[in-house]
Amino acid sequence: MGATNENKKKDIEILTGDIVVLPFNEDVAVKASEIYHELRQANQLIEFRDISIGATCIVFDLTVKNSKHKTFRSFKGP
Fold first, then answer.
1. Three-class secondary structure assignment of 7-75
2. Is the pTM of the predicted complex or chain greater than 0.85?
3. Which is nearest to 54 in space by CA: 35, 38, 39?
């Protein structure tokens, strides 16, 4: 659907204007692969999307606020 008129487009810009988009760069990819291999070795694999989120938060030194808090509890920082 999306914004169907100028007022709705402005509303979306207001809601999303301050959102910072973090890159999935080489550092995040390396951290994600480390997490993946650790979880696989422990037979505790989770969805790759969650691994990517956790890796991004670790690389950018961010806290995860999520209802799946148990998922991220075991992720190790740098």
1. HHHHHHHHHHCCCCCCCCCHHHHHHHHHHHHHHHHCCCCCCHHHHHHHHHHHHCCCCCCCCCHHHHHCC
2. no
3. 35
Exposure class string for 52-65: b at 16+ Cβ within 10 A, else e: bbbbbbbbeeeebe
- Residue 60 contacts by C-beta under 8 Å, 6 or more apart in sequence? 22
CB atoms within 10 A of CB 73: 9
What pLDDT is recorded for position 66? Answer: 67
- 56-62 average pLDDT score: 94
> Residue 2 corresponds to which tokens in the numbers above?
């999306």
Q: Over 90: is that where the pLDDT of 34 sits?
A: yes
Residue 29 pLDDT: 98
